[in-house]
Amino acid sequence: MKKFALLALLLTVFTIAGRAQESRQDVSISGSGMLEPYVNSSTDVKVAAKRGLGGLISYRFQLTPRGAVEANYAFTQNSLHYVAPTYNYQVNARTQEVSVAYVFSFNFRNWNPFVEAGGGGLFWGNIRNLATTTLDVKSQTTIGAVYGGGIAYEISPSFDIRAEYRGFVTKVPDFGYSPLATNRYYNINNPVVGVAYHF
């Protein structure tokens, strides 16, 4: 929650600072999904994950008519299932993303397709409840690359609707417990739909 409060404070400061300027900034709020692929590693550990649901808050600042920088905060909850010859564990996880990206847009009347690329971190927090079947796991941070593309439809000068695909390439988490290590990287699929406010 502290990270979320800090992000909200930064967005507020940027909003106040940008009041005197033309509409070069926007904030978007979106619903998101987290679809992690099945991983079969060289360490005999197999990892599968349930679909996760969450939210994404993004702030964009236009550097040029087509180029912008974007800061993102996302929150998702799901479960990861680790299977090896000697164990069968499930970890209920609360995942937070903090990332930055460069966004390049194309303008076609009210339609604005865009692509983005950048980097960031995922904070994997384990939830201690009945869904987590081992007490040896801890919270973990992984670093990776974010990329994607989508389209925004302008419904008024102040608002648009956005739909995009985001991908996050990072190391498969082991939650600080070496028997869960896969030594593999994977691509997390992150479809997003939301609304943006321009100011």
Automatic annotation (TrEMBL):
Signal peptide: 1-20
Residue ranges of domain Outer membrane protein beta-barrel in the record: 7-199
Keyword entries, A-Z: Signal
Superkingdom classification of source: Bacteria
InterPro entries: Beta-barrel_OMP (IPR027385), OMP/PagP_B-barrel (IPR011250)
Pfam families: OMP_b-brl (PF13505)
Name of the protein: Outer membrane protein
Species for this entry: Acidicapsa dinghuensis
